[in-house]
Amino acid sequence: MFIFYSIHYPQPEKEELLAQSMHEFGELMKTQQGLVFVAPYPFKNPENGTLMGVTIWESKDAFQTAMSNLESVRKERPSRDWEIRPTEVYMLDSVH
């Protein structure tokens, strides 16, 4: 198993756009082989306003293949312009 999660720092006035974009990208991920779980909507930390997306994959290879397949879609989204700092990305492999 492999977990990918990201923490986003939206500009307050762009939070809704970013959350919608994350939801739409999650829907696209559902079309990819190897996806076990995708959070239906981002989670919000009310203390600092961050948004977190979570996915679980059969393997890191499945995740990487999916991201490669969706690369053109990811580049079309202006979501990076909606954030006040770079997204934090975490990639976690299961330990056997």
Brief characterization of the structure:
This protein is α+β, with helices and mostly antiparallel strands and 96 residues long.
Element-level helix/strand string: EHEEEHHE
Q: Please identify, by name, the CATH architecture.
A: 2-Layer Sandwich
CATH topology value: Alpha-Beta Plaits
Spatial gap, N to C terminus: 10 Å
Mean pLDDT: 92
Strand count: 5
Which stretches of 5+ consecutive residues score pLDDT under 50?
none
What does the overall shape look like?
Answer: globular
Class by SSE composition: alpha+beta
Task: Please report the number of helical segments.
Answer: 3
Rg, Å, rounded:
13 Å
Strand content: 25-35%
Count structural domains: 1
Q: What does the largest sheet look like?
A: 5 strands, antiparallel
CATH top level class name: Alpha Beta
Helical amount:
25-40%
Task: Kindly list the characteristics that best describe this protein.
alpha+beta, 3 helices, globular, Alpha-Beta Plaits, 34% strand, 96 residues, 5 strands, five-stranded antiparallel β-sheet, single chain
Q: Describe it for me?
A:
The protein has helices at residues 15-29, 60-69, 71-76; strands at residues 2-10, 35-38, 43-44, 51-57, 83-93. It has one domain: 2-Layer Sandwich (Alpha-Beta Plaits). Strands 1, 2, 3, 4 and 5 form a 5-stranded antiparallel beta sheet that branches. Helices cover 32% and strands 34% of the residues. The termini are close together. It has 3 helices and 5 strands; from the N terminus they run βαβββααβ. The protein has 96 residues and is of the alpha+beta class. The relative contact order is 0.32. The longest helix has 15 residues, at 15-29.
